[in-house]
Amino acid sequence: MLTPNLSIGGAERWVATLIRHSNPRELQWTGVALSGWGGIEPALCHEIVDVAGVPIFAEKLIDKTSKKQKPTPAAVSPDCERWLTRTANIVEAVERASVGADVLVAWGDYKYRRFIKGPDTPNKFVLVSHSSHHKTHEIPPVDYCETFLTAVSDRAKKPYLYNGNAPVEVIYNGVDLDRLVPRKSRQAMRVEWNAGSRYVIGYVGRHTLEKNPGAAISAMEYLDDKHWMAVYYGNYPTGHRPAKDSLLTHYKENPVPHIQFYEPIMEVGDIYAGIDVLMLASHSEAFALTLLEGWLTETPVIATPVGSVPELQERFGELVIEVPMKPTATQLADACTKAVSPAGAAIVARAHEVAMEHFTAEKMASNWARYLSKITRPDKRVRLTEVLDL
Q: Which residue spans of the chain are classified as CATH 3.40.50.2000?
């Protein structure tokens, strides 16, 4: 696995979840190489190295970000050092992570030829798109390796469009159910927020432009703060454009009891235990893990028709309380009211059933094992018992 970073984010979480939940009879990971920008989250390193037993390789200068950015606290934390095996350069990191590997899986960086030019790098390369708005991905030429394209949704195929008619395999995301088990009770979280009997709108994610984080505050403009409040868990991560949202900035600088802000946490189950509605009114997504987290915790999700939402609703029926791409404050408030109504409860029940059947970590890992087996062993007939855990 080649990843640009291991900070708190959906694609980074995907790396750890896929590695941890792969059945070793189907799929074994030899190592993870860090290509050098962004932060390093100790909890993800722990999952990969200590729990899954997969080493992480990083060049010595990985903790230096670009000149325009400052290193994130996690990137310079000495707590991360004990999980990393240092190498002279990124090419060596990729080679050491790939010892014994049939295929290299990568996401998120755009100059892959710098990283996969070593003589011992696998000759099969799988590129994964986790974005519907980033710049186009670099497709390595065939003299480096045979390249295969994948994406986490139909919308996430967008960075490959310039590449003509090359096939792109869609492999949907999945969520680790253990992460959604709350450590605190619903009552404890609501006491922490001083929520009382109010409905709580939750926002979980980074405060960046494409996520439209101000949507929950916009809804609050038309909701009675005696009966409603909003809580935010997220920040401005290094390397991302902060949201230029006047409402968000105003309430961060002028706190009020019914709109609260917190740093991101790994124990997201606690958040979902306490909130009544999840706000995901993004302008752009590929396949948000928070969408699945809402479904799996039976939390009503308010979402715009971005990323995987349209294709999944076409396939399974209504799964979210949908709002337009650029929703007004009244539309967001009406969606919140619907979310806590009997109509919202019916949508929640359907979404939970669909997610439990199709979007768990185990299902995702099994789908990846089948795909990687297909491209690495196309002529070998695999017995059913080798693929399914029977």
A: 177-358
d(CA 323, CA 332): 7
Q: What is the pLDDT of residue 9?
A: 82
What was the pLDDT predicted at 245? 59
**CATH 3.40.50.2000 is held by the domain 177-358:** yes
Of the chain, the end-to-end C-alpha distance in Å amounts to 28
Of residues 18, 109, 101, 124, the one with CA closest to residue 368? 18
The partner residues of 239 in beta bridges, in order of sequence, read: none
E strand or H helix at 87? strand 84-87
* Assigned architecture for domain 2-174+360-387: 3-Layer(aba) Sandwich (3.40)
To the question of pTM greater than 0.70 for the whole model, the response is yes
Are 289 and 10 contacting, i.e. CB atoms less than 8 angstroms apart? yes
Mean residue pLDDT of the chain comes to: 86
Q: What is the DSSP string of 240-307?
A: SPBP--HHHHHHHHS-BTTEEEE---S-HHHHHHH-SEEEE--S--SS-HHHHHHHHTT--EEE-S-T
Q: Are 354 and 172 in contact (CB under 8 A)?
A: no
22: which 2 tokens?
């792969």
